[in-house]
Design brief:
By secondary structure, the protein is an all-alpha fold. It has one domain: LemA-like domain (de novo design (two linked rop proteins)), CATH 1.20.1440. Helix 1 runs antiparallel to helix 2 and helix 2 runs antiparallel to helix 3. It is rod-shaped, with a radius of gyration of 26 Å.
């Protein structure tokens, strides 16, 4: 074998190894993005579970303090059960939105009951749930950032070729249902001045 053939063979081997190495780097990067996206959704799921566990306590305090409009409490518990039946990210997102909507109705209704509003248990639970809602909003934003980074990466060349070969597809970000984008109508009854 002549020296020029050895050099050509060596360059070819090096080229193939370089291309394979680059494909491995792309693959590992895509897997990292995909797993970070899953982790960010799992973090949301943890917060949703905490909220799910807190809601019966809040409803119990409300029921024991005042005869609330039953529809508000029923809607809250129905939304809670809807979350447990949800299987996909979009179903859980929709159920989470229903819980948020029901909670805003409950907190607005509590304004009409001064004894409940000043009750220590109610205030602690209300603060806890409000904190969970704020944390959920932050984690949803992080999840959407993770999904966005993943979706961009699997559509860019050369990652696109590896992503298509491995059947990586774009993921849906967490989206708020249209009904929750509307302004909330809160009516608070004020005592009349006489």
């Amino acid at each position: 074998m002549d020296m020029s053939n050895i050099i050509i063979f060596g360059v070819l081997i090096f080229g193939v190894l370089a291309i394979l190495g680059y494909i491995f780097v792309i693959y590992n990067g895509l897997i990292s993005l995909k797993e970070n996206m899953k982790k960010s959704w799992a973090n949301i799921d943890v917060m949703l579970k905490q909220r799910y566990d807190e809601l019966p306590k809040l409803v119990s305090v409300c029921e024991s303090y005042a005869e609330f409009e039953k529809s508000v409490l029923d809607r809250l518990m129905e939304a809670r059960e809807g979350y447990m039946r949800a299987d996909t990210v979009s179903q859980k997102a929709k159920a989470s939105g229903a819980i948020s909507s029901a909670l805003s109705g409950l907190f607005a209704l509590a304004e009409n009951y001064p004894d409940l509003k000043s009750n220590n248990n109610f205030l602690q639970l209300q603060n806890r749930i409000s904190h969970l809602e704020e944390s959920l909003a932050d984690r949803r934003e992080f999840y959407n950032d993770s999904v966005n980074n993943y979706n961009i990466r699997i559509q860019q060349i050369p990652d696109l070729f590896v992503a298509n070969f491995l059947n990586f597809t774009c993921e849906d970000p967490f989206q708020v249902p249209e009904t929750e984008r509307q302004d909330v109508d809160i009516k608070i009854k004020l005592p009349s001045m006489q």
